Amino acid sequence: MPEGGSTGGPLEGVRVVDLTTVVVGPICTRSLADQGAEVIKVEAPEGDILRRLASGCRTPSMSGKFINFNRNKRGITLDIKRPEGLAALRRLIAGADVFVSNVRPAGLRRAGLDAASLAALNPRLIHCGITAFGSGGRYAGRPAYDPIIQSLSGVAGTFHRAVGEPRFVPMVMTDHVTGLVAAQAIGFALYRREKTGIGEAIEVPMFEVAASFVASEHLGAASFDPPEGPTGDARLLSPDYRPLPTSDGYITVHPNSDAQAHAFFEAIGRPELKADPRFATAIARTENAADYFRVRVAALAQRSTAAWLEIFAARDVPAARYNTIDDLLEDPHLQDVGFWQAEDHPTEGRLRHARTAVTFGGGMRAATLPAPRQGMQTDEILAELGYSPAEIAALRETGAAR
Amino acid sequence: MPEGGSTGGPLEGVRVVDLTTVVVGPICTRSLADQGAEVIKVEAPEGDILRRLASGCRTPSMSGKFINFNRNKRGITLDIKRPEGLAALRRLIAGADVFVSNVRPAGLRRAGLDAASLAALNPRLIHCGITAFGSGGRYAGRPAYDPIIQSLSGVAGTFHRAVGEPRFVPMVMTDHVTGLVAAQAIGFALYRREKTGIGEAIEVPMFEVAASFVASEHLGAASFDPPEGPTGDARLLSPDYRPLPTSDGYITVHPNSDAQAHAFFEAIGRPELKADPRFATAIARTENAADYFRVRVAALAQRSTAAWLEIFAARDVPAARYNTIDDLLEDPHLQDVGFWQAEDHPTEGRLRHARTAVTFGGGMRAATLPAPRQGMQTDEILAELGYSPAEIAALRETGAAR
User: Fold this and answer.
1) Where is the domain boundary, B295, B321, B347?
2) CB A215 within 8 A of CB B341
3) Which of A11, A232, A367, B46 sits in a 20 to 30 Å window from A301, CA-based?
4) So what's the pLDDT on residue B5?
5) Angle between helical axes of B206-218 and B146-153 (0-180°, round to 10)
6) From which residue to which does the signal peptide run (chains A, B) (predicted)?
């Protein structure tokens, strides 16, 4: 595997082979790439389905969503069902620090890409297998997508409690969160490898990650055995847990501490509620969450969003306006911090993307790479691996590389 | 700072001083603690508000939610408004690898706990400041809680598009995700410090993290400048994007690839839809997401959940039952993998918790520590810092330690 030059960022010099598709794997490897790792995205000839799954693109295989999850990566197309294609992938992995896949374990084993086989090839390799379900459980090996995991893990169940019917978060939330956790785990393993000098295998199961997320939030009184009460955090499960209507839009106000709650009651002209036993303490407000929300609903409808924001700001009551997805593009704070960045993509033209949210004082990745068109760097990467022009031509001839 | 003995896990030997409350900081440091770091939770005399914010506990300051977010940590109570309390905290930080706070930056500066001041004390320190809003933007320094960030970042906006009114995810999702990202960033910085020998400052702003999450999902056609169409991933923004009713409950079915979609149409007895131009390809199904959902709604109501699951399993169509929050406790796969673990807490009695979702082949944290009662290890930790019994008594006398 090549030296890719200096990227900057905490993961500078970390080489990642990325055999993932859709969201869970790509957000993992993008998190590594954004922080300086050199990521090579290996695609099968049919390509990552996310290239075509979302509408609104300039060329058919470069959806905006694909671009967003695959920036800062280079791309190679290999048909690993062909022995020469698989050999090229193994040569890539032999020189890598990290191999990430979201292929089902049986498929990895068939291709000799399981952790044990690859440890023999590269003992320093960190092998991160993102799966739908952890090994050892009866769902292991089943196919899954985000809504399957939202359905099983209790994410949809939180809405059932809040609004009376199960729903999904309208994002691929469990994919996205699991990918972030996988990148976290890879960082921890990279740290350990600096101490031990040897790699390891990590398993990151989406269902367990999502169930752990929900349990941390909503196991609540059932954390005790026997339970001390029902599951669920009542503050979050109220039907009124939402931005609330003002006279001209919406506002979110969240007086949490006693001081904030008391300031809020003053602000809405109901100082007598400071002494109301339903609202006097944090635990009382939790137990009377529905009543507390009703007080807010009644008050907030009386003034405009701007008027309330001014009133709450003066009293240090946490409050904010509500942004639609489109409003994000105009949010003044995001403008201040240069959140939206312009990019000239070599084939897709002028783009905008959200910059990395986290900043590292020790130095950040300097230059961004454009999300690759399929096979964009196939020849370049094969050449870096030591393939001669004639060998590359032969791989292309058989369709093993494209 | 003490050696805390060998924990096992990739972060064994990493010493973390945790000046955080509620969820965003505690899930960050729990992620570090679960993977072997030694985390010392420093609390003000009034304690982390999460101790009392959730109902259902055996003792008033040990809510289930607090316990879930604070396992594997030791606790010390210091009044850092008193000089001796602040001095003890600085002595802790002098021997630490990581300092995590979710205190507003102005408060950190006032106490001399900002990155520059602490780098002078400990040049190897990784200083992770979790903030509501990034520095340099006009919202910087404002107070915030999760719903404020859900309101501003477009998370609530996704529901507006899906169901006609903004709502929050009924979890402290942006806190939780930002904390996971903060732990990820700390892992990356620990890795870099192995190379450079010096620490650094990391800023993790909740708003920017959440806006990046939403943008990756829903910038869509507005990733292009000028936009190629509206923002939003239409597949996720359908009002029918939810577990769908069967004759006796709910089911989630998610045929994504062409093969899965075609198998699904066969399974529901509508093979003619395989050739329907609305559904023949992934991009067509995306563009006709609403119609595609209507087909599912009509079909699924005809049979029971169990009958459908058997039919879909036979055809390898991704499908799953729907679990309420309570169902999670009985899920058979989670039982198989030992997801729910029993714990005997020294003061709270028999508990259950979700085990760490990610597994590391190179070794995991061996023993879990109980979530601390407030100040549970105050004396022990002060003694490890070199305070004599008389000095500890003096600190307790003034209320600087409790």
Assistant:
1) B321
2) no
3) A232
4) 59
5) 40
6) none
Name the B residues in 52-91 with CB < 8 Å from any A CB: 52-58, 60, 63-65, 67-69
How far A90 CA sits from the closest chain B CA (Å)?
A: 21
If pLDDT is split at 50, 70 and 90, which confidence band does B1 have? very low
A156 lies within 8 A of chain B by CB: yes
CATH of the domain at A262: 3.30.1540.10
Asked whether residue A327 is domain-assigned, the answer is: no
Question: Over 80: is that where the pLDDT of B298 sits?
Answer: yes
Coil, strand, or helix at residue A47? coil
B315 lies within 8 A of chain A by CB = no
Same domain, B206 and B342: yes
CB proximity under 8 Å: B 358-387 to A: 358-362
Q: Do A278 and A349 reside in the same domain of the chain? A: no
Same domain membership, residue B34 and residue B150: yes
Query: Are residue A271 and residue A390 in the same domain, yes or no?
Result: no
* pLDDT for residue A211 is more than 70: yes
Confidence of residue B256 (pLDDT cuts 50, 70, 90): confident
For B63, phi then psi, to 5°, come to -65, 155
DSSP assignment string, B122-142:
-TT-EEEEEESS-TTSTTTT-
Give me the number of domains chain B comprises: 2
Q: Is B374 in the same domain as B270? A: no
Taking contacts as CB-CB distances below 8 angstroms, the residues of chain A near B26 are: none
* Digit-coded pLDDT (tens) for A352-394: 999 999 999 999 999 889 999 999 999 999 999 999 999 999 9
In a domain, A45, yes or no: yes
How much is the ipTM here? Answer: 0.96
Across A173-187, A273-287, B38-52, least confident range: A273-287
Residues A342 and A317 in one domain: no
What residue numbers bound the domain in which A145 lies? Answer: 15-213+338-398
* Chain A contact probe: residue of B52, B131, B328, B335 with most A CBs at under 10 A: B328
Q: Which two tokens stand for residue A21?
A: 């598709």
The domain boundary residue, chosen from B321, B347, B373: B321
